[in-house]
Amino acid sequence: MSDTTPQNKSSNDLADIKRKVQEVLGDAPDLLKLALENMLREQDPNTEGHAGSAGRIGRQSGKISELTAMANLKPGGAERLRRIFKLVNGNFNGAQKVSTLHDMRFVFFENDTKILFATTYDGDWDTYIEDFATKIPDLMDLLFSSVEGWPGITDPGVKDFIAGHQITADGWYVANPNLSVVETRRLQKQNDALQEFLDKIA
């Protein structure tokens, strides 16, 4: 009969962690191994939202999915986009029409010849791209017409184009994987109403 007392279980867990760290890091410096050991000790195996597939491409954690794409820009594309970003102060309120959109980011690199587009959203990949095409088509074409080969958001080949430039995240963390955009907004409204009520009766 095996001894499963808390002390022995802890020792077994520690030995298992050390074995896994050795397999992953092998001849790496001890400081790096210790950092990974500490991270694994703190990891809760019951944490919600372990990463799975977002559908065609990308990862999903709980209800939240990620999309990261890199593409070449047309000559002058970065400067044109910077002018657009400056005109709207980097704020695309129209994107709120896509009620599943958490955020989106644009980063220029390699001397303004490439762009990185990163976003997180609720649900699966196909539905998200279809939301772009039906709810904010003009904004999508405004932002991506500076990308080489962009077919247009309503083009039948646009999904293949996006998937061809997308890179699935190898590591990804979501703080609240089971809170959709709609749920987050509802909770914010409820909290605001509660605070207003408490202020009135104070």
Describe this structure as you would to a colleague.
This protein is 46% helix and 16% strand. The chain has helices at residues 6-25, 30-42, 77-87, 125-135, 137-144, 158-165, 181-201; strands at 51-53, 59-61, 64-72, 101-109, 114-122. Strands 1-2-3-5-4 form a five-stranded antiparallel β-sheet, covered by helices on one side. The radius of gyration is 23 Å and the shape is globular. The N and C termini lie far apart (63 Å).
Which labels suit this protein?
202 residues, alpha+beta, 5-stranded antiparallel beta sheet, 5 strands, 46% helix, 16% strand, globular
Provide a compact summary of the structure:
By secondary structure, the protein is α+β, with helices and mostly antiparallel strands. Strands 1-2-3-5-4 form a five-stranded antiparallel sheet, with helices on one face. It contains seven helices and five strands, in the order ααβββαββαααα.
